[in-house]
Specification:
single chain, 409 residues, alpha/beta, Rossmann fold, 2 domains, 7-stranded mixed β-sheet, 13 helices, globular, binds nicotinamide-adenine-dinucleotide
């Protein structure tokens, strides 16, 4: 099953509950605009390089479209379409005045020099600048892109349309980025976990955690869960994994990883194969690396009672059914990792107002947004007697559908 087919299956489950007809479903699923462009530039050695870039604008019923730009060798049209639609549902779940989009270039950014990466980014912007903007489509970082790439996008866009900070989020602080954006997805995941556990009369500190990925999302989630008293016992990254049943010293691990670019040799833990991270004997599993890691083939080996989806689409549709049947409680990506886009929204608000919030204000507003969304999802869950993922999708699809109908077709 492709990523788009899987995402649409979740959509149809929600559409069934909402009793949407075939025409409404077709309208809500079909992307607003699909862009595929050639991005060519001269490499440092004088040779010509050509890559394919995508921008999928999925829906703008509730406001400007919003979504990251990913630089990764496996970027393809199907994946970007799926991720763009997930952004539509995600912004609706947390009730941001946005639609959904996603973009990417099928490239390994590590194989390019900084100069080559800059030229590639600028070429991409030259191809899409007419269809992005603060009131149309606002890109942000995703896997393989960062604040520096956003700064280049801002600068290239300015050549065509004038200096407009709100055209991208996830920018460097010096160029209108928001305080708290770096930690936002991990922090949002912590707030989501607090809401979920409080709903069952428990706390973050009651549980043990295994976290797949120690990049932006995974490392911040690990740090903040550790600070909240949760016991992080296993962490993996692309190089390997480390575990300590007594609890990893996460600040020391972060320091070690920053220097060695790996978690696996951490002296405060024992190395183990990264593929085994998902099957550790812990209470809570946090996939925070790649999509599609929990599959029909491996879901049965999961021992956690909770899965908090830090990554986008980490759970295949078939795996979702297996884990649900096993009684595993899953907080879906469209809610659990929505902290990033929420603070991106706060960044855009600050840009539009030309006013800067302090970090406490950002974090306080983020907490409020995650708590409100949790209460909204819970109300739908109770109404329909469904799981958290179905409830989140149902809430989102209802909001987008209503906005689209009210605007008129
Ligand atoms: P990142 O590039 O900063 O980090 C990715 C991490 O995953 C790295 O530690 C890498 O080593 C690890 N990794 C890669 N392959 C792995 C493997 N096979 N096994 C174990 N670890 C592996 O990316 P990120 O920004 O942290 O994003 C992670 C996920 O979260 C992605 O799915 C992304 O779409 C999603 N997400 C990110 C944000 C955000 O604000 N950064 C927001 C929402 C969702």
């Amino acid at each position: 099953m492709t990523a788009t087919e899987a995402t649409n299956k979740y959509f149809h489950r929600a559409a069934d509950l909402l009793k949407l007809d075939e025409h409404q479903r077709h309208f809500l699923i079909t992307p607003y605009r699909e862009i595929k462009v050639e991005c060519s530039f001269i490499k440092d050695d004088g040779t010509l390089a050509t890559y394919v870039g995508f921008r999928i604008q999925h829906d703008n019923s509730r406001g400007p479209m919003k979504g990251g730009i990913r630089f990764h060798p496996q970027v393809d049209l199907d994946e970007v379409v799926a991720l763009a639609s997930l952004m539509t549902w995600k912004t609706a779940v947390v009730d941001l005045p946005y639609g959904g989009a996603k973009g990417g270039i099928a490239v390994d950014p590590k194989a390019l020099t900084p100069g080559e990466l800059q030229r590639l980014t600028r070429t991409f912007v030259q191809k899409i600048h007419d269809v992005i903007g603060p009131n149309t489509d606002v890109p942000a970082p995703d896997m393989g892109t960062n604040a520096q790439v956003m700064a280049w996008i801002l600068d290239e866009y300015a050549k065509f349309h004038g200096y407009t900070t709100g055209v991208v989020t996830g920018k460097p602080i010096e160029l209108g980025g928001s305080l708290g954006r770096d930690s936002a997805t991990g922090r949002g995941l912590l707030y989501a976990a607090e809401c979920l556990f409080a709903d069952g009369g428990r706390k973050v500190s009651d549980f043990t955690y295994a976290i797949q990925g120690f990049g932006n999302v995974g490392s911040w989630a690990a740090k903040l869960i550790h600070e909240a008293g949760g016991k992080v016992v296993a962490v993996s990254d692309v190089t390997g994994a480390t575990r300590n049943p007594a609890g990893l010293d996460v600040p020391a691990l972060a320091e070690y990883q920053a220097q060695s670019k790996s978690v696996s040799g951490f002296p405060g833990g024992t190395p183990f194969p990264a593929e085994e991270l998902l099957f550790q004997s812990v209470d809570v599993l946090v996939p925070a690396a790649l999509g599609g890691v929990l599959t029909e083939a491996n879901a049965g080996r999961v021992r956690a009672k909770y899965v908090l989806e830090g990554a986008n689409h980490p759970t295949d549709f078939e795996a979702d059914a297996i884990l649900t049947a096993m009684g595993v409680v899953m907080l879906p990506d469209i809610y659990a990792n929505a902290g990033g886009v929420t603070v991106s929204y706060f960044e855009w608000v600050q840009n539009v107002q030309a006013y800067r919030w302090d970090e406490e204000h950002v974090n306080r507003e983020l907490k409020k947004t995650m708590a409100k969304a949790f209460a909204d999802i819970k109300a739908v869950k109770v109404q329909h007697g469904c799981d958290w993922r179905t409830a989140a999708f149902t809430l989102a699809v209802a909001r987008v559908g209503k906005a689209a109908m009210m605007r008129g077709l």
